[in-house]
Automatic annotation (TrEMBL):
Catalyzed reactions per annotation: GTP + H2O = GDP + phosphate + H(+)
Main location: cytoplasm
Domain of life: Eukaryota
SMART domains, per database record: DYNc, GED
Record-stated family: Belongs to the TRAFAC class dynamin-like GTPase superfamily. Dynamin/Fzo/YdjA family.
Pfam families according to UniProt: Dynamin_M, Dynamin_N, GED
Name of the protein: Phragmoplastin DRP1E
Organism from which the protein derives: Cardamine amara subsp. amara
Localization (cell): Cytoplasm, Cytoskeleton
InterPro entries cross-referenced by the UniProt entry: Dynamin, Dynamin_GTPase, Dynamin_GTPase_CS, Dynamin_N, Dynamin_stalk, G_DYNAMIN_dom, GED, P-loop_NTPase
GO CC list: cytoplasm; microtubule
Keywords linked to the UniProt accession: Cytoplasm, Cytoskeleton, GTP-binding, Hydrolase, Microtubule, Motor protein, Nucleotide-binding
Keyword rRNA processing: no
Length: 601
């Protein structure tokens, strides 16, 4: 295989693969990815309606295969990939959307183009940027790829939207604007070149004419005594590449189904015998145009290989990062699924502990419960009222019953202390609830921050339920513990306490301005508070060390189907990963194929 065949064939294969993935010319692919299509050199065929554009393409192919009619006939881009085969081999065509079917009847090719156009646009006269890919294999063609675009028009006809003129021009511009696009600008010779839609557009996007090939059709239809030498010799409008004149089949020939090879011979005879164009005959005609375009396309492809490889390598890196971020596909094996779930649980557990230990924000709110909320609540307890002289007398008297105390009112002290410590129950329980609330918030936050879990909404719900269930259990246990502590403190007064009472009684009683005994000192509150702190802190330690222990035990008993239900990814994410994986495969294959042919000079 020659270098030209290798390079153009390679671009053909990459273009077809790009189209399958939704990446095609016209800037309509997935904007989240770099467009490989737009980096590939192409030849865009541009011309106004009735410029002879379709006839030029049929002359290049040497087959009558394109739809004909009035108005806009080409309503979707047609990517025409020509593959030269050995002499004597059968000609056939293949569509990308019908990969298993070979067309040897080119009248059926025309019908399939019409049907496939209607499939996207309907029977209306709307246009669509989604291309049709057609490959033609024939010994009569050169290796070449052309993109036939809708014909430029100046007015909308009946049945077309009012914006059709702008819509077509926008679509065409999205192709020809690209620096890798070769513009085949087709103009009829029997009209003033200054009014040519194709030349106007080409001049706008390619003012130096480096990318533009001018084609002049209908030379045989010019008025007698006139010719197009001013244009063909570059005096009227100069391009970097020479103009090429074409003589298409006449409408009468088309109606008679004149053979395309016969039409080619007539075209050659026209230029060979023409008194006006005879000196240019070797550089005129559809055969020469095809060879010229093929050679130039191969040259442009070769020059663009470094930039194409650079884009491919950059895209591979981006896709691999995206796949790593989304996570690889979930295994089908139950053991692998269990391993995946446990790994994600450990990732969540790590983040949760970081919140508690201070590596992430949130854990400080638990300290706030101990340092601010509980002490503030204790200081608001009604000790002044409980220990007023009136209250003390009443409680002591009631405790003594019919036998007054002898030395110290032991029963009265017990009642007083038991009543005072009873006030601690409310703040203690409220502190447990406050810590529980903070821990639940940290569970929710940790789940949302665990990247691995974002793929699996069902596992997120299951994990949150299991964690919150454990926290609820810890809360109940913590409440029982702190209440038990209060009850223990209330129920047990040592003998040493009562031995010291006479000494305490000899000290003057401190009262406030309202003749009430003073409230317990901050030291006394701290003494009781420390015990509550320790009990409540145990709730946090349990959450940190054993939050998912029960979940781990239960999950390990589940069957493969149940595990699979937990790993039900968001369908949109699955689709995104599949698309990324396919693009990655395409780009890697394209890189390898380019490397295989790029060294040939």
């Amino acid at each position: 295989m020659s270098t030209m065949e290798s390079l153009i064939g390679l671009v053909n294969r990459i273009q077809r693969a790009c189209t399958v993935l939704g990446d095609y010319g016209g800037g309509t692919g997935d904007n989240a990815f770099n467009s490989l299509w737009e980096a590939l050199p192409t030849v865009a065929v541009v011309g106004g309606q009735s410029s002879g554009k379709s006839s030029v393409l049929e002359s290049i192919v040497a087959r009558d295969f394109l739809p004909r009619g009035s108005g806009i006939v080409t309503r979707r881009p047609l990517v025409l990939q020509l593959h030269k085969t050995d002499d004597g081999t059968e000609e056939y065509a293949e569509f990308l959307h019908l990969p298993q079917r070979k067309f040897t009847n080119f009248a059926m090719v025309r019908k399939e183009i019409e049907d496939e156009t209607d499939r996207i646009t309907g029977k209306s006269k709307q246009i669509s940027p989604v291309p049709i890919h057609l490959s033609i294999f024939s010994p009569k063609v050169v290796n070449l790829t052309l993109v036939d675009l809708p014909g430029l028009t100046k007015v909308a006809i009946e049945g077309q939207p009012e914006t059709i003129v702008e819509d077509i021009e926008t679509m065409v511009r999205t192709y020809v604007d690209k620096p890798n696009c070769i513009i085949l600008a087709i103009s009829p010779a029997n009209q003033d070149i200054a009014t040519s839609d194709a030349i106007k557009l080409a001049k706008d996007v390619d003012p130096t004419g480096e990318r533009t090939f001018g084609v002049l059709t209908k030379l045989d239809l010019m008025d007698k005594g006139t010719n197009a030498l001013e244009v063909l010799e570059g005096r009227s409008y100069r391009l970097q590449h020479p103009w090429v004149g074409i003589v298409n089949r006449s409408q009468a020939d088309i109606n008679k189904n004149v053979d395309m090879m016969l039409a080619r011979r007539k075209e050659r005879e026209y230029f060979d015998t023409s008194p006006d164009y005879g000196h240019l005959a070797s550089k005129m005609g559809s055969e020469y145009l095809a060879k010229l375009l093929s050679k130039n396309l191969e040259s442009v492809i070769r020059s663009r290989i470094p930039s194409i490889l650079s884009l491919i390598n950059k895209s591979i890196e981006e896709l691999e990062r995206e796949l790593d971020r989304m996570g690889r596909p979930v295994a089908i094996d139950a053991g692998a699924q269990l391993y995946t779930i446990l790994e994600m649980c450990r990732a969540f557990d790590k983040i949760f502990k970081e919140h508690l230990d201070g590596g992430r924000p949130g854990g400080d709110r638990i300290y706030g419960v101990f340092d601010n909320q509980l002490p503030a609540a204790l200081k608001k307890l009604p000790f002044d009222r409980h220990l007023s002289l009136q209250s003390v007398k009443r409680i002591v008297s009631e405790a003594d019953g019919y036998q007054p105390h002898l030395i110290a009112p032991e029963q009265g002290y017990r009642r007083l202390i038991e009543g005072a410590l009873g006030y601690f129950r409310g703040p203690a329980e409220a502190s447990v609830d406050a810590v529980h609330f903070v821990l639940k918030e940290l569970v929710r936050k940790s789940i949302s921050e665990t990247e691995e879990l974002k793929r699996f909404p069902s596992l997120q719900v299951e994990l949150a339920t299991a964690a919150n269930s454990s926290l609820e259990k810890f809360r109940e246990e913590s409440k029982k513990s702190v209440i038990r502590l209060v009850d223990m403190e209330s129920a047990y007064l040592t003998a040493d306490f009562f031995r010291k009472l006479p000494i305490e009684m000899e000290r003057p009683v401190v009262t406030n301005s309202k003749n009430q005994t003073a409230s317990p000192s901050p030291a006394t509150l701290d003494q009781y508070g420390d015990g509550h702190f320790r009990r409540i802190a145990s709730n946090v330690r349990q959450a940190k060390l054993a939050l998912l222990n029960y979940f781990y035990g239960q999950i390990s008993k589940r069957e493969g189907k149940q595990l699979g239900l937990l790993l039900d990814e968001d369908p949109a994410l699955m689709g995104r990963r599949l698309e990324c994986a396919k693009r990655l495969e395409l780009y890697k294959k394209a890189r390898d194929e380019i490397d295989a042919v790029a060294w040939v000079r």
